[in-house]
Amino acid sequence: MAMRAYVGTPAGPELRKAPTPQQAANEALVRVGAFSVNRGELNLFAKRAEGWLPGQDLAGIVVAEAADGSGPRAGTRVAAMADFGGWAEFTAVPTDRIAVVPEGVATKHAAPLGVAGLTALRALRRGGPLAGRRVLITGASGGVGSFAVQLAAAEGAEVTALSGTRRSLDLAALGATHVISSLADSEGEFDLILESVGGEVLVTALKLLSPRGHIVLLGTSSGRTAALSISSFVPHVRQTLHPFWVFGSGEAVGEDLAILLGLIADGKLDPVIGRTDTWERLPEVMTDLRERRLAGKAVLLVDGTV
Predict the structure, then answer these.
(1) In terms of residue numbers, what domain contains 221?
(2) How far is CA 3 from CA 31, 40, 91, 149, 153, in A?
(3) Which of 103, 162, 243, 274 is an S-S bond match for 294, by CB 3.0 to 4.6 Å?
């Protein structure tokens, strides 16, 4: 049976007819209702051979259960993080990468949780219990940052959010105690820093870390390399630097997706969606993301479900 799916080419994704994926024994077949795009996916097309199926973050309905009996039954609404193939009408996903969407949670709010939501949740864990702690989040208006601000605030942290001026987002409404556009405007030391800008921002952020604090490296959105050495940590030799990549973190995807979905259902997390559009307009959305015109996440609707 054929379906429509975005297929990767060196020039970018093209919407074409493709075979409906065959399930492995531990995979459920999901009819995709909506998917989200991550900035990290924008640069993959020039690096991969033509014919691959892009897409990681998605939400939809199980139409065929896993043959091994694991996972949700047919007809269940789910969110998932796949390795690939999510920008399609149907995709097969291992059941341990799926979570059931609670009643009252919209499909468009479940779709963008995979890469960005899990990155924020897991990166914050590197700092231990956050109640009463001071947390700095750079790149706070982006997909990961907008999740991290809310999650840290929900745990009782005092959040300082660093954001540039190109994207307008009310970070105070998300829970940030302090909103700054330069680290020169920050005050005091931080127990945990989530750093995604790189370059001089990383160098400066490290100087703001408390003697036993944790700094988690999430990316280098500036494209600049930071000049760091062992002397960068003197005299605070008890500081910890965590290079972080969500796919290698070792935590259970389905369980963590369920945590995020539960927080949405309880009104403690509200995914920031900078643009919702039909999936046929994916190329325009990718341009908006590449040029940093969107705050938070972009969600594309495959079947019109919101």
Answers:
(1) 127-243
(2) 10, 26, 10, 38, 42
(3) 274
CA distance 25 to 78: 18
Q: Checking DSSP bridges between strand 240-243 and strand 90-94, what pairing results, if any?
A: unpaired
What are the DSSP E strand ranges found in the chain? 2-9, 12-19, 27-37, 57-64, 77-81, 90-94, 98-100, 134-137, 158-162, 178-180, 190-195, 209-217, 240-243, 273-278, 297-301
Q: What percent of the chain has pLDDT over 70?
A: 96
72 φ/ψ angles, rounded to the nearest 5 degrees: -75, 160
Residue 175 CB burial class (10 angstroms; 0-12, 13-18, ≥19): middle
Last residue in a domain, options 202, 223, 243 = 243
Q: How far apart are alpha carbons 253 and 93 in whole angstroms?
A: 12
In a domain, 120, yes or no: no
List the structure tokens of 190.
Answer: 């931080």
* CB distance 126 to 242 below 8 Å: yes
Number of domains in the chain: 2
Counting as low any pLDDT under 50, the low residues of the chain are none
Note whether residue 66 is domain-resident. yes
Whole-number pLDDT of residue 150 = 98
The pLDDT assigned to 245 comes to 85
Same domain, 53 and 145: no
Inside any domain, residue 306: no
| Angle made by CA atoms 44, 49, 54, in degrees to the nearest 5 | 45
Q: Are residues 179 and 77 in the same domain?
A: no
Same domain, 168 and 266: no
